[in-house]
Design goal:
203 residues, Rossmann fold, five-stranded parallel beta sheet, alpha/beta
């Protein structure tokens, strides 16, 4: 009976935005004085339906935010993402799908593509090389809030100064149960585990 009540309390807690917000990995110390020269957005996976590939809902959300920022600040937009598994020759990378969306909806934006990365570390390494060719070392980095601590550490290790930007997904009412908050919990635990792994392997 006690275990049942404990499980119920944990489940209820996982639906409360205030609790879930407290579980998020902390962002690295903010670097002041960054003057962004580009906006970088990281891919969030592809999905396939009837043989056609498209961006995930999260990926589209990231891209829309990044494109708005690039438009507002008059900056180039860098889209980064390949595919975790080997692709067939005719399969588009995440960055190709993102670039296609940008050219369709924001045709005035300058778009740079990094389409070889398979994970966050490769996002940072490959994008840093692309940015160096453009003499850019200060950026706005767009991803999800849970993912940004790991992404920022990777980009900083490559000498890129980055401001973290994310789309708010948790509801404003901190103590009102939310299905959206509950869906973020597995993502948050994944990021904690990934941070440990990245510190052991890369950082």
């Amino acid at each position: 009976m006690a275990l049942t009540w404990l499980a119920l309390m944990v489940l209820v807690g996982a639906t409360l935005p205030a609790i879930v917000r407290g579980l998020l990995p902390p962002l690295p110390r903010r670097i002041t004085g960054v003057t962004p020269q580009a906006v970088v957005v990281l891919g969030a996976g592809r999905r396939q339906h009837d043989g056609q590939f498209s961006l995930t809902t999260r990926g589209l959300g990231r891209l829309q935010l990044a494109a708005r920022l690039a438009h507002e600040h008059g900056l180039p937009l860098v889209v980064s993402g390949g595919q975790k598994t080997s692709m067939a020759v005719d399969e588009p990378s995440e960055s190709a799908l993102m670039a296609d969306q940008v050219r369709r909806h924001w045709p005035h934006l300058q778009v740079l593509q990094e389409n070889e990365s398979r994970n966050t570390w490769e996002n940072a390494v490959n994008t840093a090389a692309l940015l160096a060719e453009q003499r850019i070392d200060e950026v706005m980095l767009v991803s999800d809030r849970a993912h940004l601590p790991r992404a920022l550490l990777c980009f900083q290790s490559q000498g890129v100064l980055a401001q973290a930007v994310w789309q708010k997904r948790l509801p404003r009412h901190a103590w009102r149960p939310s299905a959206g908050a509950l869906t973020m919990v597995p993502e948050i635990w994944y990021e904690w585990l990934a941070l440990v792994w990245y510190h052991l392997r890369y950082l």
